């Protein structure tokens, strides 16, 4: 359905062996306090001193990389690719129309536009602009970045439009009439905050935001939910739910189905992966007796869908349910007795196949899965005796995702993509299980000479770690191939094949090899694959990644001189760890919007929200471990490190630029070479608009070419 069930915190679109040196470092009290951290002044994000340092480092890097003979061509190509007028316009089905968010050379910050479904299916749809973010930004003197729309069910008549200044997670919300194409005069307006809002009815919102002192968690997210009535001042909104300051966040949302059923849910995010859910009953607000590691995934035909990420035996029942399963619960039973639930299985994972996505149409359920990191899709039909299912005929060796579904019928769009296969959009009818190719991205690079392999490396503890290699069919296995290895390894995020114009045009066409590793910490093989790398077990993730690098070298696909690595956010932490733990394996390291100071991460931006993933310095065992892997604390003088490219943005209010700055400053102290690029806007991303993003990628591939493609 239209509504999207929200997690209790914003995900970063992210550790076993302790050495004697790490123990000594922890005992000496490394830089988890301002007294021992000489670069803590760089944590003052916008101070004159910090910004002068940033400007100087940016200029030093630009003089080298922007004057490299490859940069101008890469920049021109990246900009051309990002602004190509024949890119796929991804559809958003709303109330019988197709909507699309679009950016190009004329619309730098983007437009939200619409057309009919029949017109959308033509070669040249006739779009009508609904919101022009560039014009709105000019009017308000703010560089507005779209944070999407949250619309009233059913019909999507009224919507809350999210507007972010420069790409921050915090935003402003304004009510918009989708039928007239105008902002509602005197309508709901929520000032700048990290916040969430959901429609209870046309005249009522449930809002979690900064209500003033004592309403935001230590992670920087709201934990007080209020009910706001149309026509009343925001400061008169009535509190209806409260979490705790120690939570990650709190919020509310409403599930609907097309038979008129609804269920409003209040949530407490007690950790990043654990939450409590509460529903209204005849006896008042009551907690659902579901696992902490579980998410309500939608509702259809009066059945509430529940995804569980831990094994579960419901209260008063003998039957247990396996982690990674999708269950159903009758809505009437949920409301009548939320303490004694009677779930049944919709989907249960196997040794190789794991649930990825859950979506609903008017009468059907859509599931996407990964089977040994290969995408699959199924239609489930509710019956009086359970469910029937039918697989959809999607191509092999691809990634499959649901782009959009329609609340008024059974129409849906799938996205199908692969490393060498341009992304395509397929129109389906869930009632008839039909599926037809409608639009395909034009090829952006010559893939005729390339091939994709899925190989395996053996990690330090014997675990088999699969990875994809994209390379020329005729490469020589002599260790001379410039190879770029990428992974994420955290937050149960699955890394799967996808078509990248930048990688194809700027890397593969120039003879480079691209590798994507499915290391532990991700979601490729269900919750257990993720949990294997949590907290003090995290060294397994880093061992997995190093094992893939060693396997590439052993197969003579590449060699340390020609092997580079790249990752962002939690993947940026991965890059920092690999650079400090195994500097011998890599000759290039791209560290993007990273966490790097793991002894102060809880005190920077939204870092406290990720204790469930990384652990906490407040727990001695976990603090000792974090000290042992923290890239900022593990940098040492007189070690030959690869010269990294460190990228961040000033307006990243999720991870923050502080990590990147301090890491670079310590490298400078140790007279270690590095490149540094910090752009102002962009939030937790490569840039706030297509031009900024194109420049970021041009700098990145210029750096990689310099480092890995030389003799």
UniProtKB/TrEMBL annotation:
GO cellular component term of the entry, any: cytosol
Domain of life from the UniProt record: Bacteria
Domain named Peptidase S9 prolyl oligopeptidase catalytic: residues: 505-708
The keyword Flavoprotein appears for this protein: no
UniProtKB keywords: Hydrolase, Protease, Serine protease, Signal
Domain Peptidase S9A N-terminal: 36-439
Signal peptide range in chain numbering: 1-26
Gene3D superfamilies: alpha/beta hydrolase, Prolyl oligopeptidase, N-terminal domain
EC number: 3.4.21.26
GO molecular function annotations of the record: oligopeptidase activity; serine-type endopeptidase activity
GO BP of this protein: proteolysis
InterPro entries the UniProt entry points to: AB_hydrolase_fold, Pept_S9A_N, Peptidase_S9_cat, Peptidase_S9A, Prolyl_oligopep/macrocyclase
KW Metal-binding (keyword) present: no
Name used for this protein in its record: Prolyl oligopeptidase
Organism, as annotated: Granulicella mallensis
